[in-house]
Design brief:
It contains 4 helices and 5 strands. The protein is of the alpha/beta class and about 140 residues long. The chain has one domain: STAS domain (Transcription Regulator spoIIAA, 2-Layer Sandwich), CATH 3.30.750. The chain has a 5-stranded mixed beta sheet with strand order 1-2-3-4-5. Helix 1 runs parallel beside helix 2.
Length: about 140
């Protein structure tokens, strides 16, 4: 296979836990079944581990279409419901231009230029109140 072309993501997408953050690295195209499995894996892992952030590195993705944009937005919405924040890192300029041209706003997502910057962004954000945990009242 020629490395100049994006590789399809056909099986499981690896989800790594780095402290309080889940790191997902996308390479190539994401197919329907893989996207559904990734969403389910992330939701289950967030719920089971109580992590506070999801960092999705898309630096290996050449093209973001409306399908991938919808998948990213759905992951962010699910993570938010489970009291975690989502950051997308490594977006190429051409991908950003395409998202704007498609009119995709990716609600619920923050962006960072690199994985390192994404980790810093998640570390800076205030913790979210977990379901069932005591709320902190403002004075």
């Amino acid at each position: 296979m020629n490395d100049a072309y994006p590789r399809p993501v056909t099986g499981h997408v690896p989800v790594l836990r780095l402290g309080d953050v889940l790191l997902v690295t996308l390479q190539g195209d994401l197919y329907d079944s893989t996207a559904q499995q990734l969403q389910q894996d992330l939701a289950e892992t967030i719920s089971r581990t109580g992590v506070r952030g999801v960092l999705i590195d898309i630096s290996g993705v050449e093209i973001v279409d409306s399908f991938l944009g919808r998948v990213l937005a759905e992951i962010a919405a699910q993570a938010k419901l489970l009291a975690a924040r989502t950051v997308v890192a490594g977006m190429r300029p051409a991908v950003a231009i395409t998202l704007v041209e498609l009119g995709l706003t990716l609600p619920g997502l923050s962006t960072a230029l690199s994985t390192e910057a994404g980790m810093e962004l998640l570390a800076q954000q205030a913790p979210v109140t977990r379901p069932g945990s005591p709320r902190q009242e403002s004075p």
